[in-house]
From TrEMBL:
Annotated organism of origin: Haloterrigena turkmenica (strain ATCC 51198 / DSM 5511 / JCM 9101 / NCIMB 13204 / VKM B-1734 / 4k) (Halococcus turkmenicus)
Compositionally biased spans, kind Low complexity: 20-36
InterPro entries named in the record: Pec_lyase, Pectin_lyas_fold, Pectin_lyase_fold/virulence, Polysaccharide_Lyase_1
Name of this protein: Pectate lyase domain-containing protein
Keyword vocabulary terms for this entry: Glycoprotein, Lyase, Metal-binding, Plasmid
């Protein structure tokens, strides 16, 4: 489980452009001309809202140049998306401010020596890499992250990468980053769970993960006002099970931002074939929802409910596409289903729908329309909703250049207007049976950040050289 000692080395290529750079060069307009849509300014007035940008302790993403030998700045770029992992309110400065240990996963067992669970349970700042790929069966016992300072780098696994079944990952610690992991709990578990959830951590990032067959929500946060700065970016969130094992009955829900959660960024994600919560932003929350895609839903984005505290949101450049289950007369952003108790203030701009006649907002009331964004991360750049649709579908989820059959199937559904709300993983072929693969890693003594960036490029960019 210690630093890998394999003989394989990886080439260095610092010249490859990220998708953000390519889009900028091709005129897509990541620093475009839409007021309120570029994110290049702090708000439409040019002033920074107090307490909404940067870290309260005086650190921000610019501080990721390493002070202890680890350069985390690569996390601000993605080879497959214009949204970087650290473009939201959560950052990776903790990596650069510490000397993280590298632990290698060598077993697909759900626990024990060499397992993912063992690596996650280690103490101290740590980076988890993989010499094995395939399916990790948790047998109903989800992984609990309760020690701070964790970076799980799923991009380092050999193809087909890491897929977790019969369990999820629940975060209850600060400074956590998960990338390029697939989580598919299904219904063969003791009780309802999310695929990926933040229960009590601050500064938590879920980036480029695939989450399907959740039995509560799929990806959610419930950290409250005391634990702010949460980012969900570039995740494929799909097929949350409906008439399954949840005690409340039908429960196909995508993403829930629970009461009073603060500074939550939801950007570059795809929700598909799930009834509702794309996402739901409950009472007292402050959130940015930008450049996401929602497909085949009954209810899309809902605000408020739960507590009477004011809900604030910036909802910019999202794309909602009707599917077989979608009522095209209903607004995609509203309060109808939330029993809203407190005031709601939202800036809603540059969102698009398909068909275009499907309204973005309705007449049910309850939302005070802001003329400028009430909050916005400094580094988040956006494109128009229609452009987001294309970029999200090409680069969303775990290992977009090395997708498995279930992720490919979901994306085909979105493109072709197909798919359905399901009640069990058995409705779509059951749990995956992926070949176990291995490779040797040669983790460098220096330049671990650039090494991890190379692995990320290899699984995100189809044109990248394999490692």
């Amino acid at each position: 489980m210690d630093r890998a000692s394999g003989s394989r080395s990886q080439p260095t290529d610092r010249r490859r452009c990220s998708r953000r750079t390519l889009l900028t060069l091709s005129g897509v307009g990541l620093t475009g001309t839409l007021a309120g849509c570029t994110g290049s300014e702090s708000d439409d007035s040019g002033e920074t809202p107090a307490g909404e940008n940067g870290d309260e302790n005086g650190t921000d993403e610019s501080s990721t140049e390493d002070s202890a030998g680890f350069d985390a700045s690569f996390l601000g770029e993605s080879a497959s998306s214009h949204v970087g992992a650290t473009d939201g309110f959560a950052d990776a400065s903790w990596l650069s401010e510490t000397e993280p240990e590298v632990y290698t996963v060598t077993s697909l067992e759900g626990s024990g020596e060499g397992s993912l669970r063992e690596a996650i349970d280690r103490r101290g700042p740590r980076i988890v890499v993989f010499e094995v790929g395939g399916v990790v069966d948790l047998e109903g016992a989800s992984i609990e992250v309760d020690r701070p300072g964790l970076y799980v780098a799923g991009q380092t696994a050999p193809s087909p990468g890491i897929t977790i079944i019969r369990g999820g990952i629940r975060v209850d610690a600060d400074n956590v980053l998960l990338q390029h992991i697939r989580v598919r709990p299904g219904d063969e578990i003791p009780s309802e769970i999310d695929c990926l959830s933040n229960a009590g951590g601050s500064n938590v990032i879920f980036d480029h993960c695939s989450a399907s067959w959740g039995t509560d929500e799929s990806v959610s946060t419930n950290s409250g006002r005391e634990k702010p700065d949460i980012t969900f970016s570039n995740n494929l969130i799909a097929e949350c099970l409906n008439d399954s094992i949840h005690p409340k009955g039908a429960h196909s829900y995508g993403t829930l931002v629970m009461d009073r959660s603060k500074r939550v960024t939801i950007a570059g994600n795809l929700w598909a074939n799930t009834v509702a919560r794309h996402p739901r932003l409950k009472g007292g929350t402050s959130s940015v929802v930008a450049n996401n895609v929602g497909y085949n839903f009954e209810r899309a984005l809902n605000l408020g409910g739960g507590v009477d505290d004011e809900t604030t949101a910036s909802i910019v450049g999202n794309y909602y596409r009707a599917g077989p289950r979608t009522p095209t007369d209903d607004a995609v952003v509203g309060t109808t289903y939330t029993d809203a108790k407190g005031p709601i203030t939202a800036y809603i701009a540059y969102n698009e729908t398909d068909p275009s006649s499907m309204p973005v907002t309705g007449n049910e009331g309850g939302i005070t329309m802001a003329s400028q964004r009430p909050l916005w991360p400094d580094d988040l750049k956006t494109v128009r909703g229609g452009q987001a649709y294309d970029t999200v579908l090409s680069g969303v989820g775990a290992r977009p250049a090395d997708r498995t059959a279930h992720d490919e199937r979901i994306l085909e559904h979105v493109r072709e207007g197909m798919g359905a709300i399901i009640d069990s993983q058995e409705d779509v072929g059951g749990y995956p049976d992926l070949e176990e693969t291995t490779h040797a890693l040669d983790v460098p003594d220096e330049g671990v950040g650039e090494w991890l960036a190379q692995w990320a490029r290899a699984v995100e960019d189809p044109a990248a050289s394999p490692l």
